[in-house]
Amino acid sequence: MVDTSMLDLFKMEVEQQAALLNESLLALDQNPVAAEHLEAAMRASHSIKGASRLLGIESVQQITHVMEDCLVSAQAGDLLLDSAAVDVLLRGMDTIKEIAEGDGDLNLWLGENQSAFDKLMAELGGIKSADRDVPVETEANSPVAVEATPADVVMELADSQDTSMLELFRIECDLHGKVLADGLLELEQNPNSADWLEQLMRASHSIKGAARMVDVDPVVQVAHAMEDNFVAAQNGELVLSADDIDVMLRGLDIINEVAVCEGSLADWFAGRKQDVIQLVQALVAIKNKDIAQPPAASRMAATTAEDTFAEPDICLDIQDPSMLDLFRIE
């Protein structure tokens, strides 16, 4: 039986990500090659998949896995999400919401709705196998790039830190941290490797989602900045240099430090606050490294970043072991 606090966090995550997914899918119904909406829908489905894996909700994990695969294929230009395909994806989203809104053991839903689940999975699987011509983007339907604004680093730790959640978090960090370590070393040899950039983006996104579930915002912000850099590299907006990869590896070190911390996270952060702040600023700067600025403008931009930077707000009365364990799993 999953802990109530974990279920509540899962339901909040589904509610938030389903809203983003719904918005993106409706936009794709009008413009099926809109890159920004394909990306947003893929990330939302990936986030729900990660949360369902943490809680062992197999039905949601299977649905989102197939949905994510369809969206990745659409991003790669291997298929076109026509109105029929979007309708199936929307039904998948509705099913996820239905499961999340249940009471008690959410895995019981599958036993009571097996035939409906099997039909949905068959329809989702049919999206990728359908023979659909993919249109070439023109000026009229080409998506407008949206520049992401990095969020300030804010640290908020949940009042009750459930041991089981923190253990799951540690497992996730260990799993995806290994992908980050291996992938970053590979990028030093081949910085344009599409396969590794995709795996690194997903790994950082998963860690970000796990950290958000246990309210460890410094890790959210480190992973978020890393993810943005991988996405920019995927889009050809930058090439990660050896120095950039060194900064990314420092980000991974911080994530690992938090994940293995046995004591108070508030105490740990009190001693590492400036390091975390400087690291997030260095990670954010990677995306903008090729944008030339006059010296005065550069100094002014740096000053503005310092002036507007929000120092983490640390809750000192924390550390229910189960929440910390979940964080470390991620």
UniProtKB/TrEMBL annotation:
Keyword annotations from UniProtKB, A to Z: Phosphoprotein, Two-component regulatory system
GO biological process, one term: phosphorelay signal transduction system
Gene Ontology MF term list: protein kinase activity
Chain ranges of the HPt domain: 1-103, 158-262
Residues with Phosphohistidine modification: 46, 205
Pfam families: Hpt
InterPro entries membership: Bact_Chemotaxis_CheA, HPT_dom_sf, Sig_transdc_His_kin_Hpt_dom
Protein origin, superkingdom: Bacteria
Cross-referenced PANTHER family: CHEMOTAXIS PROTEIN CHEA, SENSOR HISTIDINE KINASE CHEA
Name of the protein: HPt domain-containing protein
Lineage of source species: Bacteria, Pseudomonadati, Pseudomonadota, Gammaproteobacteria, Candidatus Tenderiales
